[in-house]
Amino acid sequence: xxxxxxxxxxxxxxxxxxxxxxxxxxxxxxxxxxxxxxxxxxxxxxxxxxxxxxxxxxxxxxxxxxxxxxxxxxxxxxxxxxxxxxxxxxxxxxxxxxxxxxxxxxxxxxxxxxxxxxx
Length: 119
What we know:
alpha+beta; Aminopeptidase; six-stranded mixed sheet; 3 helices
């Protein structure tokens, strides 16, 4: 394997990353297919990471998982969800299709947000 590039290490940001017990495992058809981590900010839910096994991508699991996360936000009475995605990550298309809009960006990442409908 060849590493094509890296981005700068930010120790403070790294310390804010979820601990292993904060990850939620995702199962599909009785198989572990990935995991995710979210955190609640003052007035929004932040998706820290979503990881799906490559062989399960493109089958609707990501959409279903994001809908599940939206339901979590609604139960917490939060009306926004935010995430950051690498600019070259094809998952951007999924986020856009589900209503996430870019709100900021830097050299490597796009910050996206979805406003949830109030029930």
